[in-house]
Design brief:
Blueprint: E1 2-5, E2 10-16, E3 19-22, H1 31-36, H2 48-59, H3 61-68, E4 72-82, H4 83-86, E5 108-119, E6 125-129, H5 130-133, E7 136-142, E8 148-157, E9 162-167, E10 188-193, E11 201-212, E12 222-225, E13 237-239, E14 245-252, E15 263-267, H6 268-280, E16 287-288, E17 291-295, H7 298-303, E18 312-317, H8 322-326, E19 333-337, E20 340-341, H9 345-353, E21 360-367, E22 370-377, E23 379-380, E24 393-394
Antiparallel strand pairs: 1-2, 2-3, 4-5, 4-7, 5-6, 6-9, 7-8, 8-9, 10-11, 10-13, 11-12, 12-15, 13-14, 14-15, 16-23, 17-18, 17-24, 18-19, 19-20, 19-21, 21-22
Length: 395
C-alpha cells in the first residue's frame, strides 16, 4: 500500500497482485434507480412482505440522512513538504519558492489534505482516518452548518489507520452512536463524506462482504461495501438504517482509479477498541506473534490430514518472532486459541490483535495430522510499513 498526497486531497492506494488499486473514484446511483431495479420475484404474493420491507427502507433514507448528517464534517490538514521535492510536479506554476538565481534556497511549502470525520461525543471528540491527518502541522474541520473549527490530533494508530481528534469551542456537538452488531451481508449502508472537497455528501449501497483481510499493515476484518467512495471521503462514517455507524470508510480497490463498487470500512468494533486507548493512554497496544496465515481450502485440508476445513494455515514466520520462539512451524494449522475454535484465518488475526502484548495464548495446532498445544507469549505489533504489496494476512 502506498499513499499519494495531492494538492487538494489525500488518497490511499493499494497494490493487489498486478492490479494498482487507487483509493477513491466515483459512481452514483439514485434511490429511484434501485427501486426500479427490484427483481420480479420480489413483487410476487409469496414475497409481498419482503417487498414492503424493501420499499419502506428505501423511503426512510431521507429521515436517516437528516438525523445523522450533522454529525459528519469535512477535514482539512496542512502538511509541510520540501518545495524542492514538488518542483517537478508543479513546474508549470510560477512560484517564488522554486530555486532560482534570485531565490537559491527552497522553502517549505504546505500541501492541503482533505478527508472526512465524525463526532463521537458532544464535547468534541471525533474520529477520522490516520492517513488523513498524518504529519499534519495544522488541522481544521468544517461542520455541516458551515462553521469552521481548529482540531487537535490527539493521537493516531498506524495499525488500524484510525485517528482521534479533539475540537474545542462547543459542548453540544451532535455525535454518532456506534453499532453493537456486525452488519449482515446484503444490509443497506449509507456512506457519508466530503468527496472532492464538495462537503457533506451521502451515497447508498449494501454490505457486500465482511472480515476482508487485505494482507497489508493492519487492514484486517474490513467491511466491504458497494456505496461509492471518492477522494475526500476517507475517514467518513458508514451508517446502517438505524442511524448507527457500522464502519469508517478508508479505501477502495480499482484497476482504473474509479469506483467499481469495492470499498472498505474499518468496523465499529475496531473503533470501540482503538479510540478509548488513544484517549486514555495515547497509544494502542496490539498483540503480535510474528506469523503470516492463509485460509484453509478443502484441498489443503486433505493434504495436511485435516478432518475438517477449519483453522488458519501458517505459511511464514518471523525468525525471531514469538511464534517461532514457541516452536510453531510453517504448515501448522491453528484450530483454537485458549480452547475457543478458530474457524478461519481472520478469527486468529482478531484474537491476536485484540490481546495485549505479554499475554500468553495456548494455541491448538494440527501438525502432520496430530493435535498439539503450543503456548505463545505475544509481543507488541510493529508499526506497519507505509508501502507493502499484497501478502497473506499477518498476525
Amino acid at each position: 500500500m502506498t499513499r499519494s498526497i495531492f494538492s487538494t486531497n489525500v488518497s490511499r492506494t493499494l497494490a493487489i497482485s498486478a492490479v494498482c488499486a487507487l483509493a477513491l473514484g466515483a459512481a452514483a446511483w439514485t434511490v429511484a434507480t434501485r427501486a426500479a431495479s427490484l427483481p420480479s420475484w420480489l413483487t410476487s404474493s409469496s414475497h409481498a412482505s419482503l417487498h414492503k420491507t424493501a420499499a419502506r427502507n428505501l423511503a426512510d433514507f431521507a429521515d436517516i440522512v437528516d438525523a445523522v448528517k450533522p454529525t459528519v464534517f469535512a477535514v482539512q490538514s496542512r502538511i509541510a513538504n520540501d518545495a524542492a521535492a514538488e518542483a517537478e510536479e508543479e513546474k508549470d506554476d510560477a512560484d517564488s519558492d522554486v530555486p532560482s538565481p534570485s531565490n537559491p534556497s527552497p522553502t517549505r511549502r504546505l500541501l492541503t489534505s482533505q478527508g472526512s470525520g465524525f463526532f463521537i461525543s458532544s464535547d468534541g471528540y471525533a474520529v477520522t482516518n490516520g492517513h488523513v491527518v498524518e504529519n499534519a502541522e495544522s488541522t481544521e474541520i468544517q461542520t455541516d452548518d458551515q462553521r469552521t473549527y481548529a482540531a487537535k490530533v490527539v493521537e493516531t494508530d498506524p495499525v488500524s489507520d484510525l485517528a482521534l481528534l479533539k475540537v474545542d469551542g462547543r459542548n453540544d456537538f451532535p455525535f454518532v452512536t456506534l453499532a453493537d452488531e456486525t452488519p449482515r451481508i446484503g444490509s443497506w449502508v449509507l456512506a457519508f463524506g466530503n468527496p472532492f472537497g464538495l462537503g457533506g455528501t451521502v451515497t447508498a449501497g449494501i454490505v457486500s462482504a465482511r472480515e476482508r483481510n487485505l494482507g497489508i499493515g493492519g487492514y484486517q476484518d474490513l467491511i466491504q461495501i458497494d456505496a461509492p467512495i471518492n477522494k475526500g471521503d476517507s475517514g467518513g462514517p458508514s451508517f446502517d438504517l438505524n442511524g448507527k455507524v457500522i464502519g469508517v470508510n478508508t479505501m477502495i480497490i480499482s484497476p482504473s482509479g474509479g469506483s467499481i463498487g469495492i470499498a472498505f470500512a474499518i468496523p465499529a468494533e475496531t473503533v470501540k477498541t482503538v479510540v478509548p486507548q488513544l484517549k486514555e493512554k495515547g497509544v494502542v497496544t496490539h498483540g503480535w506473534m510474528g506469523i503470516q496465515t492463509q485460509p484453509l481450502t478443502p484441498d489443503l485440508a486433505i493434504s495436511l490430514e485435516m478432518k475438517e476445513v477449519r483453522g488458519a494455515l501458517v505459511v511464514k514466520l518471523e525468525p525471531a518472532g514469538p511464534a517461532a520462539k514457541a516452536g510453531l512451524t510453517s504448515g501448522d494449522v491453528v484450530t483454537s486459541v485458549n480452547g475457543e475454535p478458530i474457524k478461519q484465518a481472520s478469527d486468529l488475526a482478531r484474537k491476536v490483535s485484540n490481546s495485549a502484548p505479554g499475554t500468553s495464548l495456548t494455541l491448538g495446532v494440527v501438525r502432520g495430522g496430530e493435535q498439539k498445544n503450543v503456548t505463545v507469549t505475544l509481543a507488541q505489533m510493529p508499526a506497519p510499513r507505509t508501502s507493502r504489496a499484497s501478502a497473506p494476512s499477518a498476525q
